[in-house]
Amino acid sequence: MTQTMIGVIGGSGLYEIDGLEGAEWTTVDSPWGAPSDAILTGRLDGVAMAFLPRHGRGHVHSPTTVPYRANIDALKRLGVTDVIAVSASGSFREEMAPGDFVVVDQFIDRTFAREKSFFGTGCVGHVSVAHPTCPRLGAACITAARDAGITVHEGGTYLAMEGPQFSTLAESRMYREVWGADVIGMTNMPEAKLAREAELCYASVAMITDYDSWHPDHGEVDVTQIIATLLGNADKGRDMVRRLPALLGAERAPCPHGCDRALENAILTAPGARDPELLARLDAVAGRVL
Ligand SMILES: CSC[C@H]1O[C@H](OP(=O)(O)O)[C@H](O)[C@@H]1O
Ligand SMILES: Nc1ncnc2[nH]cnc12
């Protein structure tokens, strides 16, 4: 048994959480650069918690410039075991309405201008992301959201786009009708892939703010409309997060889905051919297997 530490990555509109005992903003140094912000640490119902605003307080980082590797490394370095990503998202489904939450379980990664792996020349690693989210953690989010009175949808495919512009109407229709995506956002990739490389359980909660641009009755998405919905969603998100420690507990058994063992047999580079500088940077993420 290890100790649970829940890491919450707060998206647009969710820049802090309340109610943590011993709350403190901690600056974490990472060999992958500076994280988006300091990390709020503390305890809730006897469980260690860490909260990181994805875009930084004051919304400084764009979806492209969020330091995804530093963020995941910093959470791992602090001792986080389970990451809950909370993200403002557009909906491609009539029934996934603004104000609803969707616990996402698949992704289509259309991002192209971001560093997507901790591995590379001198230490090549390949992890599976066929099932990119942790079902155990996702189930806890579903229960927590339901207990908080939120309309929550179980499962969905999140299209991760580069942004920062929203989609064209043709793209919106293609993602929905041809590709079968359910929700859209700009940040869950490469975050989910990096969490898997770091052997962290990862669950994604999409807080629906809009119908993107496909819906004939809702016109095109704009940020004013998103912000209006986002403020109510952020309160709901905080309510969901407050319920997670009691559901997950302070003691943690190995992940039944193997998220915490994702690197076993993943590294191909022969020990003698590995780059010592890269190995040093991988200390937190992959130290267990190096
Ligand atoms: C505020 S509109 C677009 C912006 O909101 C989402 O951010 P996050 O995923 O961090 O909640 C979306 O991905 C865009 O970055
Ligand atoms: N329609 C949308 N497209 C991309 N990211 C979003 N975040 C919130 N709504 C979005």
From TrEMBL:
Pathway: Amino-acid biosynthesis; L-methionine biosynthesis via salvage pathway; S-methyl-5-thio-alpha-D-ribose 1-phosphate from S-methyl-5'-thioadenosine (phosphorylase route): step 1/1. Residues 6-221 form the Nucleoside phosphorylase domain. One of its GO terms (molecular function) is S-methyl-5-thioadenosine phosphorylase activity. Its EC number is 2.4.2.28. Keywords: Glycosyltransferase, Purine salvage, Transferase. Transmembrane segments: none annotated. Substrate binds at residues 186, 210-212. It is an enzyme of class 2 (transferase). InterPro entries: MTAP, Nucleoside_phosphorylase_d, Nucleoside_phosphorylase_sf. GO terms for biological process: L-methionine salvage from methylthioadenosine; purine ribonucleoside salvage. Homohexamer. Dimer of a homotrimer. PANTHER family: S-METHYL-5'-THIOADENOSINE PHOSPHORYLASE. This is S-methyl-5'-thioadenosine phosphorylase. It comes from Roseovarius litoreus. The gene is mtnP.
